[in-house]
Amino acid sequence: MARNSIAKSRESRDHEESRNPSWYVPVMLGFIVVGLLWVVVFYISGSTLPIGSIGAWNIAIGFGIMFVGFIMTTKWR
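Given the sequence above, the corresponding structure tokens read:
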């Protein structure tokens, strides 16, 4: 009996410690949405926005921002 209760308390403590903070999911989704919006705005504006002087590198920036969000999904618990 005592071993079972110790094991259960250990499991619940490990589960609580492995949870992400409350800000994690909104930040993760924020990166994905901002990156997507960056690429969409670039295409809709005809390559003049968000930063017109860097041209197609806007796509790399947008995908880079989205990539950060997708990397965060691997750590989400």
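The longest helix spans residues 24-44. Try to locate this feature in the token string yourself.
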